[in-house]
Design goal:
The protein has two domains: 150 residues, no CATH class; 420 residues, no CATH class. It contains four helices and 32 strands. Strands 5, 6, 10, 12, 20, 22, 24, 26, 29 and 31 form a ten-stranded antiparallel β-sheet that branches. The protein has a five-stranded antiparallel β-sheet with strand order 4-25-30-27-28, with no helix packed on it. The protein has a five-stranded antiparallel β-sheet with strand order 16-15-21-9-23, with no helix packed on it. Helix 1 packs antiparallel against helix 2. The radius of gyration is 34 Å and the shape is elongated. The protein starts with a helix and ends with a strand.
């Protein structure tokens, strides 16, 4: 008995231990299965979430290019932001689009307060396989992902108020700049020398304009055009010379034409609500060769290099009273309801815009034709005429009676000539408006700078905060057109100078931030300056002014240059 009792106790304990182990093992199995179920279902949720994210990104990026005008209005290609976004979403497996927010599928919407941002929200169910075995309520889960893409807003280029030209006030407080500084727009005739500063209107160019491949020489004369000195019969920029012409590759963007059908310089004019009527005024409306306006304005209209054209030579003298020597200006005003669609523009001062007569005020020609002191010679009518009141004065070109966005096109056709002008917006009393109306360059501009001060500062563009992290190209043509010592800096909104690429000749000791444009060093050449906008860039709306600062120790700044600012990458990006 004793032996049996003694031997039975271990057997009972072992059986108990085996039972406990089985319970523990079962619990472990259930735990492993539960963890496995959670893991598998988590992977399933992750996959569905990733698919929703990719579909949302594709849709948002594709649809954002139709903003701000074509969210749910069909563009010329028959699509809009919603249609295009849904097409890409469906290609990524989300069939229901568009749907109301919260429903299964894709919702496409504008982000409130941001007309250039498109948001795509993907809502999709995900089947849960293992967790559903624990409870029927765990059989599905809903995944929702929102993605926002932005089409970068345009860069506003120009001066900081409702005037473009005449005396410049940079509106940036007391910067120590002397008051006698000037800022004019300029346009050249199609047959003019491109190297005079207008990069876009002339049909031909004298020679290479790449300063890396063909650097200009220091100390050249104003018309040492990329080392092609002007001598009668040797120019290459006119079709009348032997050897043919070098065609100018720089053209205005497609659609930016005037009523005359040629490429033109364009202005965006913003008229706010409650501000009308507003007058668009032009200073120096007609082209008048020989009119220098030296008494009140450092501005001039000249025939430039016309006399180097053999066609205008008669008996060894220049035939400057020939009508085909003169450029013809045409001013066209359009309504421009769609920012990026020139086909939607409607000509308002039609049917062909306004083209004032070009005039001849050269003393030799006035004497030749017996014109009185108060007269000019009209080379088209071939008669002496009274000097128009629109010369050396502000003239109303058009009056806006409705708010909106408008486009002013100024084109030059015909022959030679350099024409300086200015623009302003005024109220019924002819005072410059301060109610939010504004004039901007549209795409590019040719500017005539002048200053008798040793330093001059000019605002050239407002770059909004949305460009943080982007690379912009600041393109300057003919930067070295000043006769004396001239240094140039590009300043950001905090007045920090940009560091220029190593191939640009800069002032010793400036740390690469001051271009040495002395004595025509970059005359007739393009400087393309890539500028990386910092990720921390965040100016207040309307305050992101970038400016050019000229240092001219002798106070002899005189320069005509073309400027354009372009984005070096896609204008569409995701907003994190």
């Amino acid at each position: 008995m004793f032996r049996w009792i003694f031997s039975s106790r271990p057997t009972s304990r072992a059986r108990g231990q085996r039972g406990q182990a089985m319970v523990v093992f079962a619990l472990l199995i259930m735990m492993v299965l539960l963890l496995l179920g959670v893991a598998v279902d988590s992977v399933r949720l992750f996959i569905v979430s990733a698919q929703a994210e990719r579909a949302g990104e594709a849709g948002a990026l594709a649809g954002a290019i139709y903003l701000p005008n074509y969210f749910n209005t069909l563009a010329s290609d028959g699509q809009d932001a919603i249609t295009r976004a849904c097409a890409l979403v469906q290609q990524n497996g989300i069939t229901a689009c568009p749907v109301s927010l919260g429903q299964t599928g894709a919702t496409v919407s504008l982000l409130p307060g941001y007309p250039y941002r498109l948001q795509v929200t993907i809502t999709e169910p995900a089947n849960l396989f293992f967790l559903s075995t624990l409870s029927p309520s765990f059989n599905t889960a809903t995944v929702s992902r929102s993605v926002t893409a932005e089409y970068l807003p345009p860069i506003n280029q120009g001066i900081q108020n409702a005037k473009h030209g005449e005396e410049d006030d940079d509106d940036e407080g007391d910067d120590g700049i002397q008051p006698q500084q000037w800022y004019w727009a300029q346009i050249n005739g199609p047959l003019e020398v491109k190297e005079n500063g207008d990069a876009y209107t002339p049909l031909y160019e004298e020679g290479p304009t790449d300063p890396i491949a063909a650097p200009d020489s220091i100390g050249s004369t104003p018309y040492n055009l990329n080392r092609f000195p002007i001598q009668t019969g040797t120019q290459t920029n006119h079709p009348n010379y032997a050897g043919g012409a070098i065609v100018n590759p720089d053209k205005q963007p497609a659609g930016f034409v005037g009523a005359g059908g040629t490429g033109s310089y364009n202005y965006e004019i913003n008229i706010p609500s409650g501000a009308t009527p507003i007058n668009l005024e032009v200073f120096n409306l007609p082209f008048a060769a020989g009119n220098t306006m030296a008494a009140t304005h450092p501005i001039n209209d000249s025939l430039g290099s016309a006399c180097f054209d053999p066609k205008l030579q008669t008996g060894g003298t220049c035939d400057t009273d020939s009508a085909d020597a003169y450029l013809q200006l045409n001013y066209s005003v359009y309504s421009a309801p769609l920012q990026f669609e020139r086909a939607a523009d409607v000509l308002l001062n039609g049917p062909s815009g306004y083209s004032p007569d070009s005039l001849d005020m050269l003393p030799a020609d006035l004497s030749k034709h017996g014109c009185a002191a108060a007269q000019a010679y009209d080379p088209t009518l071939k008669t002496c005429v009274a000097v128009p009141a629109s010369l050396d004065a502000w003239s109303i070109l058009y009056t806006f009676n409705s708010p909106g966005i408008y486009r002013l096109s100024i084109e030059a056709t015909g022959g030679y000539g350099l024409h300086d002008f200015a623009l302003q917006l005024t109220d019924a009393s002819r005072h410059v408006v301060t109610n939010g109306a504004h004039i901007w360059w549209w795409t590019d501009m040719c500017i005539s700078f002048a200053s008798t001060a040793t330093k001059a500062l000019y605002g050239i563009a407002v770059i909004p905060a949305e460009y943080a992290g982007k690379t912009l190209n600041f393109d300057f043509f003919n930067l070295g057109a000043s006769p004396g010592t001239t240094y140039v800096e590009l300043l950001d909104p905090s007045s920090n100078p940009v560091t220029f690429p190593s191939w640009v000749t800069t002032v010793v000791g400036s740390g690469g931030t001051m271009i040495d444009a002395s004595s025509y060093r970059y005359h007739g050449e393009w400087l393309r300056i890539p500028v990386s906008i910092p990720l921390t860039y965040n100016p207040a709306p309307g305050k992101g002014w970038w400016r050019l600062r000229f240092t001219s120790p002798a106070g002899n700044l005189s320069m005509v240059m073309s400027i354009t600012i372009t984005l070096g990458q896609s204008p569409v990006h995701l907003v994190v």
